[in-house]
Amino acid sequence: MNVIYVDNNATTRVAPEVFDEMIPYFSEFYGNPSSMHTFGGNVGRKIREAREKVATILGAAPEEIVFTSCGTESDSTAIRAAVLSNPDKKHIITTRVEHPAVKNLGEYFSKNGFRVTFVPVDRKGRLDIDYLYENLTDDTAIVSIMWANNESGTIFPIEELSKTVKERGIVFHTDAVQAIGKIPIDVSKTGVDMLSLSGHKLHGPKGIGVLYIRKGTKFSPYIIGGHQESGRRGGTENVASIIGIGKACELAMEHLGKENTRVKKLRDKLETEILKRIPNTIINGDPENRLPNTTSIAFEYVEGESILLMMDEFGICASSGSACTSGSLEPSHVLRAMGVPFTAAHGSIRFSLSIYNTEEEIDFIIEKLPPIIERLREMSPFWDDKVIGNR
Ligand code: PLP
Predict the structure, then answer these.
(1) Are 92 and 234 contained in the same domain?
(2) If you average pLDDT over residues 80-84, what whole number do you get?
């Protein structure tokens, strides 16, 4: 059975070009980049090249790029660094819809002597910007707001938000893990002080992340050890993965325009046809300001997990809420924060496409999904099409 993978916000396939660049650095060029000999030095040169590629996609300088082990480590490092570098400040601002990498850290700080403000969102997942600005105080150590949401795909106005926050002299961090490679990002046009990336969301390997740290930002390392990453993150470099994320950023730059327009067309076709063919379906997210690859669709009066299982029989891989929450039957914190009604949140499915999806795959999903939903609704005690009907 063919796999039809539309779960790219959970993780992506490593691009063959990325894989090919990584392989020699396991077996052939295995030197330590810190070594004095040429064998190790050549590896160091390759890491410098990767750092330049990552810097280019962000509009940053290479020395502002720090390699970490994942997006979660980058988020943790940024928030902890701001807190440690501003010991007199005891207030953190973030949002109600962050990935657990930020949300759970915020909750941790709220139990450990900090006041944490979680900014709400509306039904389309758009941030309450007035609420954010009203809550900025001289005690605020950091504002951490994701660039785009992993579940709804809603994009936040980071350029504007970061500039306003920075004018108040407050550190601004953004989790851009889902935004990179999908929409253009140029940190030089923003007030962003720190930004997180993850390799496995843009056709790079798992286990590699990036933290951008603007020159001049007060910083304190999270992992203290050797001199690697100019003393900002100890530990021998994950050489092959660093080379991999460098190549992935280079490819993402190439795909940003043409291929992403194609991905958006496929996403729009999938969404339009589903809404047309299946009654009682609702889009979760902001149609005007959304990642081009993502659609989160609520199928009212059905269990999301049952839809996933039945699609799985046809090899269709999607997600109910985020991958991190799909182990439990609780509607995700993102959909709850958006005020999605219980009957809709429970039946929400996220489809997230990539450059590797084809029109045939999208047509296959459009063909298979309506009978799946119909069957499940026939079994649902809450579904009575005479009462609800099409709307
Ligand atoms: N931030 C966002 C928005 C994400 O979607 C994810 C992963 O799903 C992460 C952070 C965590 O990244 P990683 O898996 O590299 O730790």
Answers:
(1) yes
(2) 98
The set of protein residues with a Cβ atom below 6 angstroms from ligand 1 is 70-72, 99, 101, 146, 150, 175, 177-178, 198, 209
Boundary of a domain, candidates 230, 252, 274: 252
Residue 39 in domain: yes
Place 328 in a pLDDT band, splitting at 50, 70 and 90: low
Q: How far is Cα 375 from Cα 380, in angstroms, rounded to an integer? A: 9
Residue type, 180: I
Query: Residues for the chain: how many in total?
Result: 391
- Most informative mutation of 77, 103, 175, 198 for ligand 1 (most atoms within 8 A of CB): 198
3-state secondary structure 194-218: EEEEEHHHCCCCCCCEEEEECCCCC
The number of folded domains in the chain is 2
Percentage of the residues of the chain whose pLDDT score is greater than 70: 96
Tell me the CA end-to-end span of the chain in Å, nearest whole number.
Answer: 36
AA identity, residue 240: A
Ligand 1 atom with minimal separation from the 74 CA? 16
Cβ partners under 8 Å of residue 218, min gap 6: 81, 82, 85, 86, 171
- 317: annotated active-site residue: no
107 pLDDT tier (thresholds 50, 70, 90): very high
Host domain of residue 136: 16-252
165 part of a folded domain: yes
Q: In one letter, which amino acid is 284? A: N
Q: If you average pLDDT over residues 125-147, what whole number do you get?
A: 98
